[in-house]
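Lab notebook, page 48
Experiment: co-folding of the full assembly
Goal: obtain a model of how the components sit together before planning crosslinking
Operator: M.T.
Materials (sequences as entered):
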Amino acid sequence: MAMTTDSIFYQDMDGKPIESPNKIKIMDISIELFSRKGFTGVSIRDITKEVGIKESSLYNHFRSKEELLSTIFFNFRRSISRILPQEDHLGGMLQSVSPELFLKQSLAGLMKHIDDPVMAKVWRMMYLEQYRDRVVRDIYLNDIVGNMLKSLEKVFSIWIAAGRIQPADARILAAEYQYPLFAMIGVYVLLRVDGSSTWDIETGMREHVDYFVSKIIV
Amino acid sequence: MAMTTDSIFYQDMDGKPIESPNKIKIMDISIELFSRKGFTGVSIRDITKEVGIKESSLYNHFRSKEELLSTIFFNFRRSISRILPQEDHLGGMLQSVSPELFLKQSLAGLMKHIDDPVMAKVWRMMYLEQYRDRVVRDIYLNDIVGNMLKSLEKVFSIWIAAGRIQPADARILAAEYQYPLFAMIGVYVLLRVDGSSTWDIETGMREHVDYFVSKIIV
DNA sequence: GTCTATAGAGGGATAGAC
DNA sequence: GTCTATCCCTCTATAGAC
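Observation: model returned without errors.
Model output:
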């Protein structure tokens, strides 16, 4: 996967790039604060104070606090869609690498997304707001959990059909592979709130991939 | 496991049972509201309005909004500690039942806890507040994730030593078994926010136990 | 696009009568 | 233990000058 810093470029919800320095600063600081205190725990005052503008100036960039939140998740969704394997490229990719390597590379791609200084915070926001906000809940359940399981199921079916792994229910394999990672990612982003060491949980993720692979190879 | 309705009995943080009907009502309604809108998203006014008392009356029961929150999590912690396998009873229990049955019964015990009408909401609160509140973070990371993994590791070591399952790293087995369940529980409580069907994810949990057992038996 | 000023509602918490 | 009344602060958002 090519190096990219795309993820720090924001767009408005109509697709226009956000270029105003103050608007970018509002996004950055809102993400930082929302991810630590939650949407309802952060006031417009908190945000504008750190940005260095008056409250009223924020409303030149966003119509409301809600629109600011929606813009953040709009960009998260856009960013997430890029780390899912592209259906049409699957065929070629799956032939050229081993299951083990493919899974390790996917995990690396996911971790790269979560490790992005901005996206790490939005992941936290997602876990934090999903109980309060139906849109966020749908992003998690559909865009993240649903899509990842579906695309993994496809991958495992292909491997099974090609006899590269043991015959099994591809849907169950996808769940067995992915759900532990979801839980571990949750722990990972939680540990990073306090700046605690994430060494154990990262090791756990690698051990999981190894264990899983050891149980499915022919 | 014997039927019990213990979980709906609250204690104050000094250990005294909460008996005042209004105080119980405050607890119930706070849990309901906090679990849907988050601590900072709910006001004392919201709570007392539903309880049917004036704001000032709440302060006869709790010194502050924070103390109310702490009391809720104090009771959650107490309740959680009861679903962990007791170290001293492990020996006997492990000899009398098969690994498969033991794991299925543990899962049933956990699901029973989460299905309790009150505790389901506090689980949601825990997922919701853990990013904002260090104490809640510690409850999740230590009392729940940490303790469950530790006690499961013990169980697997015993089985391995007794030759009842294939030799393996007990710590990894514990992680492989438990992490998917954590993620699935997260999805489960999330689905219940909207009253969506949890049939798929419950099936997923059972399939996980089956798959896991199939990979470890001798 | 930023500012000052302010509106108008809602926040947590307390005093003191009953 | 509940009430009325109130304090003082913070909240989101808008109007209008520059």
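Interpretation: Chain B is about 70% helix and 0% strand.
Next step: discuss with group before ordering constructs.
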